Amino acid sequence: MVDLKGRSLSNEPLVKYTSWRVGGPADRMYIPEDKNDLILFIRSLDSSEPVMWLGLGSNVLIRDGGIRGTVINTRNRLKQLRLIADNTVYVEAGVPCALVARFCGEQGLVGAEFLAGIPGTMGGALKMNAGAFGGETWNIVRSVETIKRQGEVLERAPGYFQIAYRSVKGLENEWFLSAVLQLETGDAAVSQQKIKSLLERRGQTQPTNQPSCGSVFKNPDGDYAARLIENCGLKGYAIGGAQVSEKHANFIINTGNAKAEEIEMLIKFVQDTVAEKQGIRLATEVCMVGEKE
């Protein structure tokens, strides 16, 4: 019998774990004590058990029927963050990106300031090559630690993956445990001021005080999804409790009582309308997972 120290929950509602505040229940949820406990848990799972990881619950739409199998919740777990050498930072997958940006700035390291604009964890940022304000996650990654479905832990170099805009391929049946970030020495005060300016800009241009997932659609080459959506007159358009933000057209907000089904319907409506009026079919940045009711 494996001596696990984390918490196991059954039929756990996911609505409180997602930034959109929607989602049905998970058959099972595991909240690990730390990275070593998580490794033991994954090794204890039956090979047929479906597994999904959840951090801060941004960039994901969990459907109203919920998730079959096990959800591993790394929120406030896998939270190690430390300087390991000059210009080099070790960060586990559960650490919020904004905290990484602030820590690096305080250490007088530059290059990670853009992470302050990403509303998720480092694990999610690695999975999708998240970016903000012109920066992208994998530009500062020196190496990563992954765990395979059978529990084998590996170190990977960035060259192992096929990395592109909001896309990382080559991770089949593997998940990110941690990363080593390579940064440059700079001025701590300048870095912290840059983070402050980025957050102010984010607050002015994005609906940060309303439930959303972050950006819904990828920007097409040479254009912006928000511009295309706005040009179709869709700002403020709503289906049930789901609404295209009046502040930023690439955000869909939950006005208080939205269901995941309504958000998904609005996503498709936006895609269809932009395709019809602008000739471009927007690809989603958000991951849509789970069962319909």
Task: Tell me about this structure.
By secondary structure, the chain is an alpha+beta fold. Helix content is 24%, strand content 29%. The protein contains six helices and 20 strands. The strands form seven sheets. It has a five-stranded antiparallel sheet with strand order 6-7-15-11-12, with helices on one face. Strands 1-2-5-3 form a four-stranded mixed sheet, with no helix packed on it. Strands 17-18-19 form a three-stranded antiparallel sheet. Strand 17 and strand 18 (242-244) form a beta hairpin. The longest helix has 19 residues, at 260-278.
How is the topology of this model organized?
Blueprint: E1 7-13, E2 25-31, H1 35-44, E3 51-54, E4 60-62, E5 67-73, E6 81-85, E7 88-92, H2 97-106, E8 109-110, H3 122-128, E9 131-132, E10 135-136, E11 141-148, E12 153-156, E13 162-164, E14 167-169, E15 174-182, E16 184-185, H4 188-205, H5 225-231, E17 238-239, E18 242-244, E19 252-254, H6 260-278, E20 287-289
Parallel strand pairs: 2-5, 3-5, 4-20
Antiparallel strand pairs: 1-2, 6-7, 7-15, 8-16, 9-10, 11-12, 11-15, 13-14, 17-18, 18-19
Strand content: 25-35%
Secondary-structure-derived class = alpha+beta
**What level of helicity do the residues show?**
10-25%
Number of strands: 20
Q: Based on Cα principal axes, name the global outline.
A: globular
- Major β-sheet strand ordering: 6-7-15-11-12
Uncertain parts? none
Gap from first CA to last CA: 36 Å
Reading the helices and strands in chain order gives EEHEEEEEHEHEEEEEEEEHHEEEHE
Largest sheet: 5 strands, antiparallel
Gyration radius from CA atoms, angstroms: 19 Å
Number of continuous helical runs: 6
Mean pLDDT: 95
